[in-house]
Specification:
This protein is of the alpha/beta class. The protein contains twelve helices and ten strands. The chain has a five-stranded mixed β-barrel with strand order 1-2-3-5-4. It has a five-stranded parallel beta sheet with strand order 7-6-8-9-10.
Length: 389
């Protein structure tokens, strides 16, 4: 493509690429490719610079990131590209709204005439080293199994006492109390106040946690705090606090705003809620819902019992309607006649056996008498023995 097409004095147009941009004229224009290449070569001499800003867009395509970086004090913006080869070297939790420092080098694409900056390094402003340490700790705790869902406790259906750790006179405390009491008016709390940011955050929270965890009446503990920037939330990633929650006897519920970069306490808690209202809803059941559920179950039980009784009554009526149960006399009379016949036959059989046995006994008695020596002597015979013989 050329801007103009003109002929030389000899009637021929010189090749556009042969004309450098600085030497171009209306009669001898340069090409778009030559112009873009010249711009690229000029920009390529620029050095890498560190620039600070806020990420306003973050789009991942084919492993590469195409983003926009906005000045923190004005509306000025630049386009940045993070190639896949560089993406693995920057913090994985960077996203829209983050305040970052970026090492960029100007890049100009000849084909599209597109100007942007290629990123070679990126880190959070003021939090780079801390976040790197937290990421290493996150990896270590995950390897130890502290984030494993299998080790987390199930929440009780209806806790007798709820332990609450929060800032004194905080909105979080009011929200938890109000929403829990709306769902279950008889709910009871045992509240321990602690600083939720600053130097006292970790020791105060540890002391409150130990006190509530040692209370046998407390069934579940809520750690309620507000959201905030990473610097504000650093206390809730302290290793001492994270391990204390993991080793606690009671189920713990951590309240936080949903963010890609969440404190480590969110990962080790038995359950994380997005807001104090959400925490209250998850800890105690809704009395109205439970009453409706009981009414539904009672209705189902009544229906099932009625169906069972109706079925059993129908079965009983069916059995009673059978001839043998409706008029059992013929069956009894028939069985009585049969029983009388059997008894008569048995009596005859016994009588015959007794008669036969009597005759046999008489025959044996006569034989015994005939063979007896006493019978011979009775006929006049004697048996004499000589004395001394």
């Amino acid at each position: 493509m050329t801007v103009f097409e003109a002929t030389t004095g000899h009637g021929e147009t010189p090749p556009a690429d042969s004309v450098a941009p600085r030497d171009s004229t209306a009669d001898a224009p340069t090409s778009v490719t030559r112009l873009n290449a010249t711009i690229r070569d000029f920009i390529a001499r620029w050095n890498t610079v560190w620039v600070e800003g806020e990420i306003t867009s973050w789009n991942v395509r084919a492993g590469n990131v195409f983003a926009r970086l906005k000045d923190t004090r004005s509306d000025a913006q630049i386009s940045i590209r993070v190639w896949s080869s560089v993406r693995g070297r920057i913090p994985s939790d960077i996203g829209i709204g983050d305040h970052v420092v970026v090492a960029v080098k100007a890049d100009y694409f000849v084909k599209a005439g597109d100007f942007s900056f290629a990123v070679s390094a990126m880190k959070h402003v003021g939090l780079g080293d801390q976040l790197e340490r937290l990421e290493r700790l996150r990896v270590q705790l995950r390897q130890e199994g502290l984030f494993n869902p299998a080790r987390k406790s199930r929440l009780p259906f209806l806790p007798h006492v709820i332990g609450l750790i929060t800032g004194e006179r905080s909105d979080a405390e009011k929200d938890v109390h109000r929403n829990a009491e709306l769902r279950w008016p008889q709910v009871r709390f045992r509240t321990e106040y602690a600083a939720v940011q600053g130097d006292r955050c970790v020791p105060d929270t540890l002391a409150a946690l130990a006190k509530l965890d040692a209370d046998p009446d407390v069934d579940v503990i809520i750690i309620a705090r507000g959201g905030g920037d990473p610097q504000t939330l650093l206390g809730f990633s302290d290793e001492r606090l994270v391990r204390a929650v993991a080793a606690g006897l009671h189920p713990h519920r951590q309240r936080d705003r949903t963010r890609e970069r969440s404190p480590l306490l969110d990962d080790v808690a038995d359950l994380r809620a997005s807001t104090p209202t959400d925490a209250a809803k998850r800890v105690v059941p809704d009395v109205g819902e439970q009453r409706a559920l009981i009414a539904q179950l009672r209705s189902r039980a009544t229906t099932r019992l009625t169906q069972r009784l109706t079925h059993d009554i129908a079965q009983l009526e069916q059995l009673r309607s059978r001839p043998v149960l409706r008029s059992p006399d013929p069956l009894i009379d028939g069985r009585a006649q049969e029983l009388w016949l059997q008894l008569s036959r048995g009596r005859d059989a016994v009588t015959r056996q007794l008669d036969a046995a009597g005759r046999r006994t008489s025959e044996l008695r006569a034989s015994l008498r005939a063979l007896s020596p006493a019978a011979t002597l009775a006929r006049g015979y004697a048996i004499a023995h000589l004395e001394g013989a």
